[in-house]
Amino acid sequence: MSDEQQPAPDTAKPKEEKGSLVEKIQALGQTSVPDMGPTNIHCMTVVGQIEGHMQLPPQNKTTKYEHMIPQLVAVEQNPKIEGLLIILNTVGGDVEAGLALSEMIASLSKPTVTLVLGGGHSIGVPIATAANYSYIAETATMTIHPVRLTGLVIGVPQTFEYLDKMQDRVINFVTNHSSITEEKFKELMFSKGNLTRDIGTNVIGTDAVEYGLINEVGGIGQAIKKLNELIDKQKSSEVVQ
């Protein structure tokens, strides 16, 4: 076979591999990642600030609730997904968006487990309590404080009444989805002296469990083990029925 008839060397594949390698280094800081393969557990993260009706500046690390809601719907509908793990490290954010996510998580028919790493502050508290079972890292914290508005507040009775009702929604959700009493939660919420120049309480991992806010101190291993137990339990109950 002459040189003209020989097929050109296949250079496309090495270029693709090189491009993929560069993308991995840029995105993840490493050349290879563990192959997840097929899994029956879906993992979602709530990180940074929970973004609701107002768009936050681009430099803010955010969790957009309009991105989370379709994922939760997909988890409910996809028969291959049998359980949901939610990992939180959030400073809080939009109250209504946080409550919307909490309500959706709580209403899923599939087993759910939450894990608070770093922090699950403010409106992150109801999200952390929304699952069937909740974990918190020993060094993680949760800030409990009254509902606040940023920016201009119209000083009329209706405004304060609206804030009070919104606060009641948060209190009712947390107390209905955890073991903490309403009296204890309000005590932590309105405590003075715990937060510098503010009202509220910063609760560490072991205290969150002691108060009944979170089920157990633990990490990713315990969370996945518990989720698999809940999945097996649900399968067993379905077989019996």
From TrEMBL:
SUPFAM superfamilies: ClpP/crotonase. Residues 1-20 are annotated as: Disordered. One of its GO terms (biological process) is proteolysis. GO terms for molecular function: peptidase activity. Gene3D superfamilies: 2-enoyl-CoA Hydratase, Chain A, domain 1. InterPro entries: ClpP/crotonase-like_dom_sf, ClpP/TepA. Keywords: Hydrolase, Protease. The keyword Protease applies. The keyword Phosphoprotein does not apply. This is ClpP family protease. It comes from Shouchella lehensis.
